[in-house]
Amino acid sequence: MSEQVLDKFIERIDAVFLPVKNLQESLAWYQDIFGFDLRWKNERMCGLSIAPNCGFHLVEIMDFEPIDKYTPFNYVVKDAEVSRKKLVEKGVTVSELRNGEPKRFDLTDINGNMISIIEL
Question: Is the model's pLDDT at 115 over the cut of 80?
């Protein structure tokens, strides 16, 4: 490794873009399941409000294929067990709680995309 230290110039990730097969159906699902408010929408994508300084966007992709081999990001919750129970009650496909820390499980959205839920 070089002895020269590079200055940090990236502040944070501004937004996550999740591919979906149908924007309107996906938007309705995310609003129903999670209660995310719509910030903006155009013909191909929309931005949902989750938390300050956190952009979460759904993007309709013509040749859509679900992200089902890994989870591209985590949602953070205060209580993984309570959150898992709420999702099960809403009919969402979820994994069992995983062993280890942090407490976590995966869910599958309406498009077949996998997302992790972690307790922090």
Answer: yes
- Residue 60's pLDDT is what? 98
CA distance 42 to 68: 26
Note the pLDDT of residue 13.
82
Q: Which residue, chain included where needed, has tokens 């979820």?
A: 94
| CATH number of the domain enclosing 25 | 3.10.180.10
CA distance 39 to 104: 28
Q: Are 81 and 94 in contact (CB under 8 A)?
A: no
Is the overall model pTM greater than 0.90, yes or no?
no
State both tokens at 50: 């989750």
> Under 8 Å CB-to-CB from 32, ≥6 apart: which residues?
90
Domain around 92: 15-119
User: Cα(2)–Cα(18) distance, rounded to whole angstroms?
Assistant: 36
Query: Is residue 62 included in any domain, yes or no?
Result: yes
